[in-house]
Each structure stands twice: as structure tokens, then as C-alpha cells.
Automatic annotation (TrEMBL):
Catalytic activity reported: N-(5-phospho-beta-D-ribosyl)anthranilate = 1-(2-carboxyphenylamino)-1-deoxy-D-ribulose 5-phosphate
Protein name (Swiss-Prot/TrEMBL): N-(5'-phosphoribosyl)anthranilate isomerase
Record-linked InterPro entries: Aldolase_TIM, PRAI_dom, RibuloseP-bd_barrel, TrpF_fam
PANTHER family: N-(5'-PHOSPHORIBOSYL)ANTHRANILATE ISOMERASE
Entry-linked Gene3D superfamilies: Aldolase class I (3.20.20.70)
EC numbers: 5.3.1.24
Organism name: Aphanothece hegewaldii CCALA 016
UniProt-recorded Gene Ontology molecular function terms: phosphoribosylanthranilate isomerase activity
């Protein structure tokens, strides 16, 4: 199973998280986020972090130009689109970046919104489900209604996000079987400052 830890801002924390067994590290490229890293910071982080893990840049309603420029300046292996990006935008980005993983995040207000995911099945490599929040785009700590996701079996890989923590991860994975999980605020001391004890506990919990 893929394990993505998002909101990395510090090299040593990123290295430690990769050593614990994360398969992907996420970097927030959304300027309004308290976890934001600038393109220069992102370049510096990626140069110093192990290239054995996927390096995912998280964008929300950014222009294609900004995303393409950021990818060309760094060695991101994937781009996560966490805003209201249309299927057409995803197709365009995939055409421009054929070797980069395109992840479309859907913020699920009600399970009816899962129907919306169908429009992306042929446009992106991976889907990600996050919880809806009225004023925040992500990193909210809010969980999804896992019970209701049991029937979500898209034809492409998908990651579960939204309020996952070392204490609730096994409950979530007992109810649903995503291809991967994505955690941010649930393994932090404060936004952008990862709590390595919580990350360690996460990997211990995943082994039980
Ligand atoms: O983390 C952020 O600040 C953020 C800002 C804008 C878009 C996405 C963001 N993070 C994503 O939020 C989810 C879940 O976070 P949490 O575990 O509930 O704290 C995750 O996919 C992050 O990539």
C-alpha cells in the first residue's frame, strides 16, 4: 500500500519519514496554506531528499503555466490537484507531463459527490478522496464517512486522505481498501512541523 505523508517543509523530517517507510512525500504549493513551500524551497527540499520515494507537489486552482514551470524546475514525480480542476484541465496537464503522476483530489461533501469522480477516470493516474471543509482546501483534519466509501471501487488507483491519524488508521482500513493513504495534520505538532513520534506510531499501527 502507498503511504504518502504530506506537508513536508523540513529536510531532516522528510528524510526520517522516508526511512520509516513512506512511499511518497507531499509538498504544499498552495500559497494560502500554512504548509506552503515556495518553488525555490521545493527545489532545495527535493534535491536533498531521497529519490527512492515519490515527490508530490500539491496545487489548488493553480495555472497550468505555474504547475509546468514548477515541475520543470524541480524533480517532482507527481502533481496533486486539490482544487476545482476540471477533467479537461487534467487531460491538458497529462498531455504536457506524460511521465508525471497526475493525482486528482476530490473533496467529498456528501457521498453523492463520488459520482463526480467518474469524469476523471480517463483523465488522471490516481484519485484522492479528502473531506470537504467550507473554508479550507486541505489539511483540515476532518475525516470522511468511511462506512459509505465501501462501495467506492474506481478503475484507477485511489488514495484515502482526510483526518487520518495513527489512532484511527486501522479503523479506516478495516472498513475500506484504498490503494494508499495520505496523512498530514494527523502526524504534526503544528502545520508543517511533522511529529516524528506520531509518524513512527503510524507505521507501528500499520504493522499490527
Ligand atoms: O495541507 C494543506 O495545507 C493543504 C492545503 C491545500 C490543499 C491541500 C492541502 N493538504 C492536503 O489535505 C489532505 C488531508 O490533510 P489532513 O490529513 O486532513 O490534514 C492531504 O491530501 C494533503 O495533501
Amino acid at each position: 500500500m502507498r503511504i504518502k505523508i504530506c506537508g513536508i517543509t523540513q529536510i531532516e523530517q522528510g528524510k526520517a519519514i522516508a526511512d520509516f517507510g513512506a512511499t511518497a512525500l507531499g509538498f504544499i504549493c498552495v500559497p494560502t496554506s500554512p504548509r506552503y513551500v515556495s518553488p525555490n524551497q521545493l527545489k532545495m527540499l527535493i534535491e536533498r531528499l531521497p529519490n527512492t520515494v515519490n515527490q508530490i507537489g500539491v496545487f489548488a486552482n493553480a495555472s497550468a503555466d505555474l504547475i509546468l514551470q514548477t515541475v520543470s524546475q524541480t524533480h517532482l514525480t507527481g502533481v496533486q490537484l486539490h482544487g476545482d480542476e476540471s477533467p479537461e484541465f487534467c487531460v491538458f496537464l497529462k498531455q504536457c507531463l506524460p511521465n508525471i503522476e497526475i493525482i486528482k483530489a476530490l473533496r467529498i461533501k456528501t457521498t453523492d459527490a463520488l459520482v463526480e469522480s467518474q469524469a476523471y477516470f480517463n483523465c488522471v493516474d490516481t484519485l484522492l478522496l479528502d473531506a470537504y471543509h467550507p473554508s479550507m482546501l486541505g489539511g483540515t483534519g476532518k475525516t470522511l464517512d468511511w462506512d459509505r466509501l465501501a462501495s467506492f471501487t474506481p478503475p484507477i488507483p485511489w488514495l484515502l486522505a482526510g483526518g487520518l491519524t495513527p489512532d484511527n488508521i486501522n479503523e479506516a482500513l478495516g472498513l475500506i481498501s484504498p490503494d494508499g493513504i495520505d496523512l498530514s495534520s494527523g502526524v504534526e505538532r503544528s502545520p508543517g512541523d511533522k511529529d516524528l513520534a506520531k509518524v513512527k506510531k503510524l507505521f507501528q499501527q500499520l504493522e499490527t
